[in-house]
Amino acid sequence: MLRTVLFHPDPQLPGQSGGPERPGKPEASGASGGERPRAADSCAPFGQRVPAVPYRSARHLPEPPNEARDAVRTAAAVLRAGGLVAFPTETVYGLGADARSAQAVARVFAAKGRPSTNPLIVHVTGIDMARGCVAEWPRRASLLANAFWPGPLSIILPRAAMIPDIVTGGGPGVAVRCPNHPMALALLFEFAAPVVGPSANRSGNISPTTAAHVREEFGGQGGAGGAGGEGGEMAVHVLDGGASAAGIESTVVSLLGPVPRVLRPGVISAAALAEALGEPVEHAGEHGVVAGSGQAMPAPGMLASHYAPHAPAVMVSLAELAAMAPGLTAGAAVVTHEPLPESVKTAARVIVVPAEAERYAKALYASLRQADGPGTERIVIARPPRNTGDAEADAIWEAIWDRLTRACVPRG
Question: Which residue from 101, 286, 320, 347 has the highest number of Cβ atoms inside 10 Å of its Cβ?
Answer without folding.
Answer: 101
